[in-house]
Amino acid sequence: KTYGGTGDEEAKSIIKAYDSGYIILGTTTSNDHDVTHLHGNADIWIFKIDDKGKLLWQKTFGGSDEERAASIVATNDSSYVFIGGTASSDGDVRLSKGSLDVWVGKIKDTTLLWEKTYGGNSDEVGTGIVYTNANNGLAFSAHTNSSGNGDLAGDSPTGGEGSPWVVKLNPSITTGLEDVRNYQTSDIYLYPNPANAILHLKLKESSKTSFSSIRINDVCGRIVYSSGDITSKESDINIDISGFKNGVYFLSVQDKDKVWNQKFIKE
Q1: Beta strands 137-144 and 124-132: pairing type?
Q2: What are the pLDDT digits (tens) for 62-110?
Q3: pTM for the full model?
């Protein structure tokens, strides 16, 4: 079977799906036929086929510049983590650390649960990724041309053409939880986290903080919830997130000239 559009496609990795069929990771420059919604020059393209090669679903991931695919692994929560490179800082990519960054993202079917860039002020690109079943963590290999800055502070390339780079990630990265569970500040509680239907924001009784406005963005930067101006002095606010897609979100609380930001997970 062939898959793609009128542009160029290149497959880089294929793995067995957690249920049945296969997951294929590659790159695409097409925006037609089997490929929908090209973000930029070249996107990471992930699609699923059944045991007879029938295309079941497909999705492109990236920004307005170029993405490169390298490898994909299955995790023990029925999701997948991909690695490659990105030159974008928009679309699905929230942060650019240099001209080309290592890009790691986790998907659940066609939903991007989280994504992160790694690197310094020069060029990096991911080459491989493994899932460590022992501690539910991730480790990846990459190629870097950065030296002593960004995520490579204290490191130096070993040659003029750059160096191999090996990174082990915190096990919590695999679930996207990172530092979001049981989070509280000196003034505000956010719970439960992860949440399923209702997300609670609560002020401590001794707090002098008040809610002026609340905003929630998804991993692509889109505003999915905005409270507008809050005039009442509520100490406990409930937000209905039952209609949100599963994944990671970013909540901002405005209090006069102070902004409080935190991530939470909808599951």
Answers
A1: antiparallel
A2: 999 999 999 999 987 788 999 999 999 999 998 888 889 999 999 988 9
A3: 0.66
